[in-house]
Amino acid sequence: MKKTLFLLIMVGYFNTSFAQQNSSQPKDSKGTAKENNSSSNLVFNPDQNVVTEHATTIKGQKVPYKATTGTMPVWDEEGKAIAGLFYTYYERSDVKDRAARPLVISFNGGPGSASVWMHIAYTGPTLLNIDDEGYPLQPYGIKENPYSILDVADIVFVNPVNTGYSRATSKDIPKSTFFGVNADIKYLADWISGFVTRNNRWASPKYLIGESYGTTRVSGLALELQNSQWMYLNGVILVSPTTLGINRGVAADAALKLPYFAATAWYHKMLAADLQNKELTAMLPEVEDFTLNELLPALSKGGSLDEAKRKEIAAKIARYSGLSEKVVLQNNLNVPYNYFWKELLRDQGYTVGRLDSRYKGIDRKDAGDRPDFNAELTSWLHSFTPAINMYLRNNLNYKTDFKYNMFGPVHPWDNSNDSSGENLRQAMAQNPYLNVMVQAGYYDGACDYFNSKYNLWQMDPSGKLKERMSWKGYQSGHMMYLRKQDLETANEDIRIFIKQSLPKNNQPAKY
């Protein structure tokens, strides 16, 4: 079914508790299998790959492609390999002009999360087996993705150190080299430059896509690539973005979550009839207007807010959140996320999910101020973990005895000096070609949709960049693409974004 080229480059051994080994037999320069005499010790090879050939159908069109799966080194200033990043690189194989072919570089978040979620559930050529709303199905496995963006762009899915099969080459390398907002951005920019050079993609239009903490990562990378690698991008796609280091202040932090509360309450039919009978996107503007023009000023007054106004605001918060006025007042008009997830369906015996509040959970007891577990995350791990392990081994022929880290050890993580939102603004200001698109799910409580709008407003206080910024909302959660309808729509939004952000031939990058 596929033609496979397998290349392994062996390096030195490291101790068993730390190092890694690819379990496939190494081959000599002629491709002949050699006996592996490494005993039972695990060996990490930071520079190896497997190439396989495939074909799929996207939007009714046959798309042949090559998949390269393996590791590529992170080098220090002396040219020594200090880590190997595991990646999967998809190239459409019937393209004649590779220079004009866009390249999308994809990261997930955490920090500490593998690049598995968007890989086998969103933009890549394959999908894991789930139902149309994103819930697990058995038997586990994968299928073709008819909505993949591989028809218009090549894609590389990158796993930072300790995620997926990526590892440092020695336990003696300081964790601070990799595990922090700015350290992460710095070494990944070096790696991207090396990858682009090795694969001869300097001429290609380049895009970064990041999800969750990956949005912090790619926002910082946009400027770091310009400043340290002299690499200029055409687009950055932020999927379920974090706050990007943009300070909210106490009042804004408390107020901005209400539209998310309203969306969740609407989904679970906990709102008054006049709100419930509207479409979600018709109901939310009323809540957003109240949030900005009434709630935010009221919260800014804190304890000086007079009692009558306090009760008036509490009644409106209750109306839009599905909570009782008593609960709102008990929390001083600022209901914590955790309490909301526990309280909204408490009388029904359920909690709601953090990353996707469409999901329901069951706690040991109904009492308490937070759910026992994240109902959505356990559901996702249920379906994603078998699928990625099976797919890499059976379909992409990457065989290893190592554990694939869905979530790897990356702590302590240095969150200080996060200016990623400002970095992205500066990169856009310096690069007239650079466009930004945000994708957000209305039911995401970890990186909620209204905060993602607020990011764009605060990143561009002058309004001079807004023509190159766009925002898209979807009726699902953090991973909006798990819902089949949003999978199709969101991929099409990326496809359109890429096409529209490509400059015309010989169009100068200038203001």
UniProtKB/TrEMBL annotation:
InterPro entries: AB_hydrolase_fold (IPR029058), Peptidase_S10 (IPR001563)
Entry keywords, A to Z: Carboxypeptidase, Glycoprotein, Hydrolase, Protease, Signal
SUPFAM superfamilies: alpha/beta-Hydrolases (SSF53474)
Keyword Repeat carried by entry: no
MF terms in GO: serine-type carboxypeptidase activity
Residue ranges, compositional bias (Polar residues): 34-46
Annotated signal peptide: 1-19
Region (Disordered): 21-46
GO biological process entries: proteolysis
Name this protein carries in UniProt: Carboxypeptidase C (Cathepsin A)
Source organism of the structure: Flavobacterium granuli
